[in-house]
């Protein structure tokens, strides 16, 4: 992230500039600064305004400085109800009014001149909003200390957050601007705003946001709503996709009158909320339908992918099986070829067969496992290994075998072992001139 190159920014503004860029993803640092300057460096309002622009929804927060908060107040259809102060009654009332009139005129004239001159000496501290939530909490505490805890539920957030929640929840938002210096504010709060029937109506039918105009947050809202007198109430709602002021109530209004006026404003504008709810439901249904279609497509895609995966695994399994069978065939062919070569080598190494007239010769008849018979002569001095090699060289003989004699029944040690490292000769094995030996197949053992 590139650090801002402007040298005229304070440390606090630089941190807000970098934080705003992180939250919005805007690459241009100049654009980030321009947006924050439009919102008087209120990062919360600037971020929300940016999100509204991305959603294609008109902004409900700070546009250019000429209108600090973008709430539609220019609608000529706004319902306005102003309660004027009661005229004096009787001679005594008119007398008191005429006597106090010069003093009130002088007091308010001097106060206005003093405030006007003070602006040239130092800017109005209320024009700089540094802690909007703190302003709201401070007003709530002072209200409860002065009027008690029986009051409508205050929205514990900034004006921008209240607008956003009212827009999201499609509810009416009642805004109360408290003029601490106004003579009617105290009576309005005690008798009207804290009346049980008023509390019940506000808590059940709308969101309620309130702040003192002596606080920067309240002053900022008063500049947006442009109230004429106090007490001041404004009813705001989502109308034609914009947060719009649909009712203004000014002056010292009584509880029953306030309830009637609020009910009238809500009844007159309820159709807009109903229409917006229907549109949202339609959009939600369309979104749900699209999501269901996407999920069905993904499920079908996953099923096809699973089928393709199983086919690949089956093909791979068959391929490995065929390779395994082929390897087994090759191994079996190599084994048979080696076995045949070994038989041929054993046959070539056999000593010549003695003649029948040789007195040292032994005639042996071999009974093979397949019930065939083989006959051959050997010399008494020859090792039993020769007998084994002869039988091994035969095509009919098994790969592994042992040779047994019948009388007495015994296994001849024809191959080296621990007991007979060097196999004995035919004579040492006790064979006679004529013998019948049995070949026992050991291939499967």
UniProtKB/TrEMBL annotation:
Ranges of Basic and acidic residues compositional bias?
Answer: 303-348
Q: Which residues form the UBX domain?
A: 357-439
The keyword Membrane belongs to this UniProt entry's keyword annotation: no
Give the subcellular location. Answer: Cytoplasm; Endoplasmic reticulum; Lipid droplet
GO CC annotations, alphabetized = endoplasmic reticulum; lipid droplet
- Asked if the record carries the keyword Coiled coil, the reply is yes
Segments passing through the bilayer: none
Purpose of the protein: Plays an important role in endoplasmic reticulum-associated degradation (ERAD) that mediates ubiquitin-dependent degradation of misfolded endoplasmic reticulum proteins. By controlling the steady-state expression of the IGF1R receptor, indirectly regulates the insulin-like growth factor receptor signaling pathway. Involved in inhibition of lipid droplet degradation by binding to phospholipase PNPL2 and inhibiting its activity by promoting dissociation of PNPL2 from its endogenous activator, ABHD5 which inhibits the rate of triacylglycerol hydrolysis.
Q: What is this protein called?
A: FAS-associated factor 2
Quote the gene name from the UniProt entry.
Answer: FAF2
